Amino acid sequence: MKRLCVLGSLHLDVIVNADNLPQIDETIVGSKVNYIFGGKGGNQAVAADRLGANVYFIGRIGNDSFGQALSATLRNSSIDTSQLQQDEGSSGMSVAIINRQGDYGAVIVSESNLRIDKTKFLISNDTGILLLQNEVPDEVNLSASRKAIKEGVQVWLNAAPARKVSTELLKNLDLIIVNRPEARFYKDFLGSDDSSHIIKIFTLGAKGLDVHFPNKQPQHHDAYSIEAKSAHGAGDVFVGALAAQYLKNNNFSDSLNYAQAAAAIKVSRNVNERAPINENDVFKFLKRH
Known about the structure:
By secondary structure, the protein is of the alpha/beta class. The protein has helices at 40-50, 65-75, 138-150, 167-172, 180-185, 187-190, 234-249, 252-267, 279-288, and strands at 3-7, 11-18, 30-38, 55-61, 80-86, 92-98, 104-109, 127-133, 154-158, 175-179, 199-203, 209-212, 219-221. It has one domain: Ribokinase (UDP-N-acetylmuramoyl-L-alanine:D-glutamate ligase). Helix content is 32%, strand content 27%. The longest helix is centred in the last third of the chain and has 16 residues, at 234-249. The two termini are 28 Å apart.
């Protein structure tokens, strides 16, 4: 099985639970706080690793306690961290507030993630997929995509958070994944001729997902029926699971069902109760559904 390269962000997430999300100028009382490994790059890498992918990670941390915690999580997995960069600044972090219904709002402070040195990483020729997100500079993603193409590696982009994507990076992509708000932002650009070669996956939460393959009719995949407790982090589990399973079997339909199952498991668990999701969890879930 070919390797998965995840290039992306690392954040230490400060997760606060409260009855409601605060309005402008409002201070509310929270009920709990947790400090959790995060960042889209880190979350997707860990999810893919736990689901059986052979993962190596490219990113950057600072020389602080948050960086130490982030590095420890990666090194306690089987992820290859030999290309994890470090500097003397601050590490990335975020603050998320989750209400009683499981909805959330978050603020990201990128810090070291904006300082990834694009001259100091390699994409190996045993890589099957380079997985990117939008929490690192576009020029870093573009440089990585160029290196991947030279090695015959597929380039996948989870285009979150929404921002302008360069024409060259768009041309280098094989697949793009966006959610509903991101799809609205990218509406014109995803309908252009420049993106006609790309597989497009639109995640729709409880309504499932739509897939647009080049020169084919769109496909719809219904979501699994579950009791949702928190949507926080479900998108990253979906992306990591999709890449992991696709590298194993090269079958998109099967991989999409597998990724939806992994995300459903994530959503069905409270943030404070979430054990790592592994392959056995997903296979058991699929047998029940």
